[in-house]
Every structure is written in structure tokens, then in C-alpha cells.
Amino acid sequence: MATIRQKMIELLRNEELDAHDLSQILSIREKEVYEHLPHIVKSLEAAGEKLTIHPYVCLTCDYVFKDRSRLNRPGKCPRCKEGSIRMATYEIL
Q: Are residues 56 and 87 in contact, defined by beta-carbon separation less than 8 angstroms?
């Protein structure tokens, strides 16, 4: 049996997914997805691969969270203070 991280890596090699999609497919909490992502980044770097992150975007003012270092979901937009934020997506290229 493959581990959760191995399953996540395999899924992200095949398609671009967000944390919610991964949690649904793997039957784990979304919070757990965010806990696994930093470890996946390190594993991929060691193997010469890269996790590509398509950043969060505010749906109200189109602010792009391009410099965000944390992988978990932001609570609100720093520009307009609204909470309508499109999920970041992840894929392995």
C-alpha cells in the first residue's frame, strides 16, 4: 500500500488539484493535506522535481497571493479584507 504522501504525489503528477480536491479523493481532512505538502516539496526537490503552486486569488479584488510562503488557506485578503478567495492549486511538473 502506498502512503498518503505517495498517493498525493501520484495524483499531482496526473492533474492539477487544490487541497479540497485532494482531501476528497484521499478521504482525509483538508488540514491534513496542508500538513503533508511541505514534506512533499522536500521529497520532490530531493528527486529533482518541483511542486508548482498556482497561488490563491481574491475573488473580490483579484489580489494574487504570489509571495505567500505558507501553503494553507488565507483567511482574508490583505488588500480588500474580504474572505472570498479562490483556492491555490498544485501540480508536479
A: yes
- For the chain, list residues with pLDDT below 70: none
CATH of the domain at 28: 1.10.10
Count Cβ atoms below 10 Å from residue 31 Cβ, excluding itself.
Answer: 11
Residue 48 to residues 35, 41, 43, 45, 51, Cα–Cα distance (Å): 21, 10, 9, 5, 10
pTM for the full model?
0.87
What's the domain range around 45? 4-92
Orientation of helix 4-14 relative to helix 19-26, angle to 10°: 120
- Distance, in Å, from the CA atom of 55 to the CA atom of 77, rounded to the nearest integer, reads 13
Count of domains in the chain?
Answer: 1
